[in-house]
Design a protein that fits this description.
The structure holds two protein chains of two kinds.
Chain A lengths: L1 H35 L3 H6 L13 H9 L2 H32 L5 H13 L6 H10 L6 H24 L4 H9 L4 H12 L1 H17 L2 H6 L8 H11 L4 H33 L3
Helix pairs in contact in A: 1-13, 3-13, 4-7, 4-10, 4-12, 5-7, 7-10, 8-9, 10-13, 12-13
Chain B lengths: L1 H5 L13 H28 L2 E4 L2 E4 L3 H8 L1 H36 L7 H13 L2 H12 L5 H8 L13 H16 L1 H12 L3 H9 L4 H29 L3 H7 L12 H10 L8 H29 L6
Antiparallel strand pairs in B: 1-2
The chains are: A mainly alpha, B mainly alpha.
Chain lengths: ~280, ~325
């Protein structure tokens, strides 16, 4: 009897603690979004209430969409992120296939070489990367960002994908070989479809740091035409620091795509972290 | 490379045609990775040994490092940034990881309800960019808006409020805690996964021996998740010692007030890229990047060759 009440109390305590921390993590985001829909007075007078018909206002969004070139920023971010992910997945899967499928001299060395980038951040090579991009005339182009992010994403992608490709059955591949498929068709038509779940995990892992990066856009592509959303909102907010409506609206706009993607992919992402990362 | 690829171990070359497809599969990744990551890294390390003398790039040996560690203006900034970076790391280790372990331990209680919701919500800040996180907290902690003092007032602690981000004494701690708030989801997830991987038999055996509750956590579960804590520590270490974005967003490139939040990443940015009146200096930038590289390399090696080897791994 008392044991049951004990465990009831304990569960209650655990829920209280978890709810408290959930509030801590959601509150700032929630606060920003509700205040972005209020007029200036209401933001300051009652920051903690949700917008009412009297205080509702879209003035912040009007300022942001009128002044900042957010459509371009979003477009740049989308192009950079999607092309980089596509290249990371294609090149990464090809290299992972070579490393996991064939035995050749230098296999282990190549695997280790490609794994260096998992631990050593690409940022440390910035001085020479900028120099190289200047020499190649790529400064202020999206190509520069795409190249950097592709290189940054490859090591982890190769590592995760080759683990998964080792689990693809040899019999299947050998059957394909007997039927006269070339090594390329075996890779593209047999193996790739089978590792699709792993590809999705890698895509999500690759996407977050690219979308959120501030360092390389700031250094390699700060021009107006090539700004990403992260850099664009950073500069916009810096300029409008006293216009609270605009700042809160810009922040909400920057949160939006992440929030939407997270709602769609959270299951995939969390499964990826809990399954693959601890091995 | 093609030569190495064409020979399979233990088989005479003649019987085997050159396997060009291996080369084709490896080449794109190898080229992009080498050209954009490895070569620039090596070039940066090389540049740290050069400096511009009379308008020409000249080999100067370790003179750049001597300047960095010895010359008053540089040394002051460098040791300040390094010290702040170490504090930044210590706060992460002492706050982020224990909270992460505690949350994971609660989430892994069997038959607890709403776990997916808690997990998803607590992980959300990790996905936001530093720009968003930095500005949100800057607004919340701002004395102008009054959200933070207002909330402290609700619990009767209004007198505790101070413009924490603006005071040299508390700015670094505040920035570190913002970063902890953002990243607590990662240790939580990794440890949650490690806890779920503990087989039921082990827990049942412990219960048969009368080890339950707290002592079960300390004596049975914690030793079993130590490898996961090791991974988290090294990830935190690498992340902290090349952090830049959050400080840049919250406190600007000068990492104010009075350099009290300056860490190696912001120092590298200012040195290499220049800021306001200070001109960008490529050689010194490369020198700082090299020091960061050596620090991270030392940490990673310590983890791979010492900590990971000593750690007992349990096979189930």
């Amino acid at each position: 009897m008392s044991k049951a009440r004990d465990s009831f109390l304990r569960t209650g305590f655990v829920h209280a603690a978890l709810i408290a921390y959930t509030l801590v993590s959601l509150f700032p985001v929630f606060l920003t979004i509700i205040n972005s829909f209020k007029d200036r007075n209401a933001i300051f007078r009652a920051p903690l209430t949700i917008p009412t018909p009297q205080t509702f206002s879209l003035i912040g969004y009007e300022t942001v969409l009128g002044q900042g070139d957010f459509a371009t920023y979003f477009q740049n971010s989308f192009i950079v992120t999607i092309v980089s992910i596509a290249l990371v997945l294609l090149f990464g899967a090809m290299a992972a296939f070579a490393l996991s499928e064939y035995r050749f001299r230098g296999n282990t060395v190549m695997g280790l070489y490609l794994a260096i980038g998992i631990m050593i951040p690409i940022r440390l090579g910035t001085v020479a990367i900028l120099q190289g991009m200047v020499a190649a005339n790529l400064v202020n182009t999206l190509t520069a960002l795409i190249l950097v992010y592709t290189a940054q994403g490859l090591p982890l992608a190769i590592f995760i994908l080759s683990e998964f490709m080792r689990t693809v059955s040899d019999d299947l591949k050998n059957a394909g070989r007997i039927d006269g498929l070339s090594e390329y068709s075996i890779f593209f038509r047999l193996v790739l479809p089978l590792v699709r779940p792993a590809m999705a995990t890698v895509a999500v892992f690759t996407m977050i740091p690219i979308w959120n990066d501030l360092w390389f856009p700031l250094i390699l592509a700060p021009a107006e035409a090539t700004k990403t959303v992260t850099l664009g909102s950073q500069i916009f907010i810096g300029q409008f620091v006293t216009n609270w409506n605009a700042v809160l609206a810009a922040l909400s706009l920057a949160i939006l795509p992440v929030l939407v993607l997270y709602v769609i992919f959270s299951r995939q992402l969390i499964r990826g972290i809990t399954a693959g990362a601890v091995k | 490379m093609s030569d190495a690829l064409s020979v399979q171990e233990g088989q005479p070359t003649a019987r085997r045609p050159k396997r060009w497809h291996i080369l084709v599969f490896l080449l794109p990744a190898f080229l992009v990775y080498s050209a954009v990551m490895i070569l620039p890294l090596i070039e940066t390390l090389r540049l740290s040994l050069f400096n511009t003398v009379d308008g020409q790039s000249t080999f100067v040996g370790l003179a750049n490092f001597q300047t960095l560690f010895g010359e008053e203006r540089w040394a002051h900034d460098f040791w300040n940034a390094l010290k702040n970076n170490v504090i930044f790391f210590i706060i992460h280790m002492c706050v982020q990881n224990p909270i992460g372990v505690a949350l994971a331990a609660m989430l892994s209680i069997p038959k607890l309800r709403f776990v997916t919701f808690y997990r998803t919500a607590i992980f959300l800040p990790t996905l936001l960019s530093f720009v968003i996180v930095g500005f949100i907290w800057k607004l919340i902690l701002s004395p102008i808006w009054g959200v933070a003092p207002g909330m402290l007032d609700l619990v009767g602690l209004k007198s505790l409020f101070a413009p924490w981000l603006g005071k040299p004494g508390s700015a670094l701690i505040t920035v570190s805690l913002i970063s902890v708030w953002q990243y607590v989801g990662i240790p939580m997830m990794l440890i949650y996964a490690a806890l779920l991987n503990i087989p039921d038999e082990v827990i049942e055996a412990a219960e048969c021996d009368g080890v339950t509750g707290w002592s079960q956590f300390w004596k049975i579960k914690l030793p079993l998740i130590l490898p996961a804590i090791g991974i988290i520590s090294i990830l935190t270490f690498v992340g902290n010692f090349n952090a830049f974005d959050l400080v840049y967003t919250v406190q600007g490139a000068l990492a104010g007030p009075d350099g009290s939040t300056d860490i190696l990443g912001t120092l590298l940015y200012r040195t290499f890229f220049g800021f306001q009146l200070q001109l960008g200096d490529r050689s010194m930038g490369a020198t700082i990047a090299t020091v960061m590289f050596l620090i991270i390399l030392a940490g990673v090696s310590l983890y791979l060759f010492v900590i990971q080897r000593r750690m007992r791994r349990y096979q189930f």
